[in-house]
């Protein structure tokens, strides 16, 4: 079914560890026993496929889910989903969720004293096209306080969930906004030592997708793990 | 071209907003062949407290050992309740090849997401009493005393299995570096 041998292991410093005490909730939830290295078998090399039976055409527009317009600054968030070999990942499900423009989620756990917006749920879905492109219309999320440490505030962010084409490619991440002064203080953003990896979580203002008079565009490209690139045949030939 | 995979970030406490639309706890429609099993369990943290904000996703083959069929996709998603409980009603998968073409015992792949985890936990569910478990090439990589954490237990009615996610401690579930 699958012809690849496995997916690449992460480059040093680019993916978080489970235990990261600056993010306090990791302490009681991170495994304490060593992880067992899992060879990539058919279970890890395959994954679910989703289609337009599930994702409706308008699911990418978070500003059109209710009777009225949500409060806030309308933005376009778009980009490409690629693998580590630079190949586009087509027809893959992208799920997003975010706070409203006041930094409030419509969720029983969110007790932040900021208004909910009856015209904004903050959830969207899209499938990438055959060249790996996705696009959402939404509003710019607000920053909000959390109780991780004294005077802790999350930078504005949008949660992203991606399936890719295999169980081993599954990725959940967050997109941030350029120039946000809260990034420097945020334990989640700073969970990996590699500065370039962190900065790839920050979207870029994008004039190409900006719609004049309507909405600023932000570009956020996402890279999923790529297949190991050493086919057996090549290896054999090279060793002669 | 060589890129690095995007850094993983936590799903956070508000994951339900984005993920509940695809809750899939019943995986096996009527008419699809296979032995029906209900797998239920709880997620418990380092203090033994229920984790009420986790999402579990499973990925499995059909009863013949094929992935991604038209009538049985093999994907499930369940969110834990206040008691930390999740459930899947599915079928026992067939065997699929593993490393070196050696057949694996029937198993289900599991991705676990929650606040307090900067990347998902990866585990597997195996089936109690299956003779293939003794030869499974992945279980063989797990220290013998911890293997039982990957095998569901029979509970009450036939076809009802329990499999818990213990995040820390002496009964800590085996998690994989996937």
Give an overview in words.
The complex is a heterodimer of chains A (240) and B (178). With 240 residues, chain A is mainly beta. Chain A has one domain (38-224): Aromatic compound dioxygenase (Protocatechuate 3,4-Dioxygenase, subunit A, Sandwich), CATH 2.60.130.10. Chain A has helices at residues 42-45, 195-199, 232-238; strands spanning 36-37, 74-83, 93-98, 123-127, 133-139, 144-146, 152-154, 157-162, 171-176, 204-205, 216-219, 222-224. In chain A, the strands form three sheets. In chain A, strands 2, 5, 10, 11 and 12 form a five-stranded mixed β-sheet that branches. In chain A, a hairpin with an 8-residue loop joins strand 8 and strand 9 (171-176). Chain B has one domain (15-166): Aromatic compound dioxygenase (Protocatechuate 3,4-Dioxygenase, subunit A, Sandwich), CATH 2.60.130.10. The two termini of chain B are 23 Å apart. In chain B, 3% of the residues lie in helices and 28% in strands. Classes of the chains: A mainly beta (240), B mainly beta (178). At the A-B interface, strand 1, helix 1, strand 3, strand 9 and strand 12 of A face helix 1, strand 5, strand 6 and strand 10 of B. Strand 1 (36-37) of chain A pairs parallel with strand 10 (176-177) of chain B, so a sheet runs across the interface.
Q: Which stretches of chain A are low in confidence, meaning pLDDT under 50 for 5 or more residues running?
A: 233-240
Q: List how many beta strands of chain A DSSP finds.
A: 12
How far the N terminus sits from the C terminus of chain A, by CA atoms, comes to 30 Å
Summed up, the helix count of chain B is: 1
Structural class of chain A: mainly beta
Biggest sheet of chain A, in brief? 5 strands, mixed
The pair of chains with the biggest contact is: A-B, 74 and 68 residues
Q: Report the sheet-strand fraction of chain A.
A: 15-25%
Q: CATH-wise, what's the superfamily of chain B?
A: Aromatic compound dioxygenase
